[in-house]
Amino acid sequence: MTRTALRAARLFDGTTCTDDPLVLVEGGRVAEVRHGRDAVVPDDARLVDLPGATLLPGLVDTHVHLSFDAGPDPVGALAGRDDAALLEAMARAAAEQLRAGVTTVRDLGDRDYSVLALRERGGLLPTIVAAGPPITSAGGHCHFLGGAAEGVSGVRAAVRAHAERGVDVIKVMASGGMLTEGTDISATQFSAGALRVAVEEAHRHGLPITAHAHALSAVRDAVAARVDGIEHCSCIEGDRVVLPPDLADTLVARRIAIGTTAGLRPVPGMAPPPMLARLLPDLLAAHSALIRAGAVVVAGTDAGIAPPKPHGVLPYGLAQLVDQGMTPLEALRSGTSTAAQVCGLADRKGRVVPGHDADLLAVAGDPARDITALLRPVAVLVAGEVVAGAVTQGVAS
Questions:
Q1: Is there a single domain that holds both residue 191 and residue 210?
Q2: Cβ-Cβ contacts under 8 Å for 49 (sequence gap 6 or more)
Q3: Tens digit of pLDDT for each residue in 364-393?
Q4: pLDDT digits (tens, 9 = 90+) for 175-202
């Protein structure tokens, strides 16, 4: 079996940085990591030379929607696609993720389990952690994806059906959302009892569960139900953002993963909706407070829902986490090893260590000093094979 040796100027291995790495890949996994300019390339290895670049784990986005095309009307575009056209659009979205260096995505809401169909079809894809259609109330946020359930018994049955279909995570819409007309982002969609049942049933099937929650009451109910993660965590009460100290303390103490929806690619002439623009400063301040308090925070970009949220927007999200108070090194961990843990893949993703999958990203510059280096990918590798970028390759002599 031919081995691959990758030589770069620097390595971020998912936790720490070192200089002059030589990473050996065999059978799609990292076999060995050597250091030093004099590290010898094995005679039987194909050399991938990355001069001046930093090598790091492929990025992990904990919240994407491959069903949405990041256009001006993603919901309308989705409605206009039959199943075959949807699979093709999702494959294109997945390719965009790879080109940006995102080699693992957690899809938190598709139409009628289309992500499972995409994964089964195969091809060149990032690793996909699938939720299927999010569980929501009748007429609730993203009900058009096919996951509506009513009452405690309906929620229990919906979780069970998702588990039987083979999803990897349960997503529940605890509040309304901005993408669905007629729902209220400052109100809950399920009773506290229904959320508790959703969590109990998910955990009974060995599945983690994360809750979409904009409303402060929805965040409180989700925390009380003992969810594993909270998406957005906007803590909206009325027309303001409120992060009570006791809630912040509980989020930190229980290590509940918070997906902040960070990451916007600038689109000339496009401004955020007025309500979001009004709430955004206080929302960012609340998330900064959680970062300072030591909460488990990942970007969780919500890629696909609007033009500023294209597939592959995670590098912008990690830069935003730096703006909110993380060091570049902390943001890199958030987008690799921490995100892999949130996705339940810490045993094989998010690190460059022996035994882990050789899903790798090389960028020009040093992202541990300047996080925007992530916007300059040089090469992307999946299972040790170059899938994007131009690099010098050859057989060592």
A1: yes
A2: 7, 391, 392, 393, 394
A3: 999 999 999 999 999 999 999 999 886 555
A4: 999 889 889 999 999 999 999 999 999 9
How many C-beta neighbours within 10 Å does residue 79 have?
Answer: 10
Q: Give the pair of three-digit tokens for residue 334.
A: 């958030």
Q: How confident is the model at residue 276 (pLDDT cuts 50, 70, 90)?
A: confident
Maximum Cα–Cα distance across the chain = 68
- Which residues form the domain of 89? 59-342
Q: In the chain, which ranges are E strands?
A: 3-12, 17-19, 21-26, 29-35, 45-57, 59-64, 102-107, 127-130, 170-173, 209-215, 229-237, 240-241, 257-259, 297-298, 360-364, 377-382, 385-389, 392-395
Task: Write the CATH number for 126.
Answer: 3.20.20.140
CATH code of 13's domain: 2.30.40.10
DSSP 8-state symbol, 175: B
Statement to judge: residues 124 and 158 lie in one domain: yes
Q: Decide the pairing of beta strands 229-237 and 45-57.
A: unpaired
AA identity, residue 172: V
Q: 277's torsion region: left (phi>0), alpha (psi -120 to 50) or beta?
A: alpha
Q: Under 8 Å CB-to-CB from 123, ≥6 apart: which residues?
A: 91
Give the span between the Cα atoms of 392 and 52, in whole angstroms: 13
Give the count of domains, the chain.
2
What Cα–Cα distance (Å) separates residue 156 from each residue in 63, 148, 190, 356?
Answer: 23, 12, 12, 35
Asked whether the CA dihedral 275, 291, 202, 124 is positive or negative, the reply is: positive
Same structural domain, 209 and 330: yes
pTM: 0.97
Task: Note whether 15 and 150 are same-domain residues.
Answer: no
| Together in a domain, 43 and 79 | no
Which of helix, strand or coil describes residue 366?
A: coil
Residues 383, 307 share a domain: no
What whole-number distance in Å separates Cα of residue 259 and Cα of residue 291? 12
> Do 15 and 102 sit in the same domain of this protein?
no
Q: Tell me which residue has tokens 């569960």.
A: 209
